[in-house]
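User: Hi! I'm working on a homework problem where we have to compare a predicted structure to a textbook description. Could you give me the structure for the chain below?
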Amino acid sequence: MTSSVTARAGAQLTRAVILIFAVTAGTSAAGLYYLQPLLHDVAADLRISTATAALLVSAAQVGYLAGLALLVPLGDFLERRRMVPALILASFVALAVSAAAPNFAVLLATTFATGVAASAAQVVVPWSSSLAEPERRGEVVGTVMSGLLLGILLSRLLSGTIAEFGGWRTVLLVASGIQLLMALALYLKGPAGGQAAAEESYPEVLVSILTLIRRHPVLRQRMILGFFAMACFSAVWTAIAFLLAGSHGSPFHFSEFSIGLFSLAGVAGALGAPVVGRLADRGYLRIVTTLVWIVVLGSWGLLAWGGHNVIALVVALLVFDFGIQGIQLSNQSAIYALDPAARSRLTTAYMVMYFLGGVAGSVTAGAAYQAGGWALVCEIGLGATVAGLLLWTVFAVRARWQGSMELEDSDESVELVAENRPAMALGI
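Assistant: Happy to help. Predicted structure tokens:
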């Protein structure tokens, strides 16, 4: 029966639906970043200090964290075809009110609400995973995750471009219109996502996240690896704005629009994620994980060189973002194989730790750049990557000593074994 259900779900997951999922994830996540490069304009318009305007970034992050912890688990409890469009409509309203905000207090509140609604991106990812056939799951999740990362990277470029002609309020107004269109497209084209057991109450769903963390060593390990990977990603993209603007002896002096164009290098790297997904689908998850960590490790040398050479910097960003996206995809491929009925809750556990890594990386990068410039940021990032690679090595060696990876007693595990895939691909 499970095979027939999976086949029906897979049949609904057309290329058009996958594209809608990817764009939905990207536009939802983008809501966190539209104002980030425009804080100076916001401060001038609302007559507040730059430091006060910077609280908008924190408000979006706190809202997103709240959505991850409190709303994403409901993806295992509610019909996703209704839940996700509802969150996107909430994002539409929050962005529209933000565009018309008469004062900072209103803008701060609506920015927080936008952050909460942005958690829709992390409901779409397990939704796509649950609909994909086992042999395509990595590729599908990789495509959706590419959309999410592209939304993050391109949001700054889109924001800067629109602001050149219409100001920060126009940026938010355009963003709200995009969300309205995506809510409509997803509601009309999104396949049924299924529901968790009806007897589960909301508090029980939240408590079950802790149970999942305690039950699955692979989840705990991937959460730690995700923390280090996102800390590196956030550190680079936080500090690079200072580097390109010419702060602290940097040889570069680019405009805000030109700085936004550098995100295109990250976009090119992110587009390679489906390749990683296909390799994971073929049973090479352990090898893929090792290779993408090595890619990130090697990218730090290019990034350091890029502090003095713009061509090296562009190449470094391409390689670095490909590696980070590969780590993220390998982590999610591993955790989604643990319990098909709890993918949203597994996402919550993993992404909360992942996001905390991002906060740690951005805070560290700001202080590091102030103290020692781009070189110090690269040194700290290199150290974090070495720590992540060493931890991964320990996890992998420990699993090899145990003889085989832990397989959960689930229909998916049985299906994957029946397809003669290496059991190692389901764990770390």
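For your comparison, note the following. DSSP finds 18 helices and no strands in the chain. The longest helix spans residues 343-402. Good luck with the assignment!
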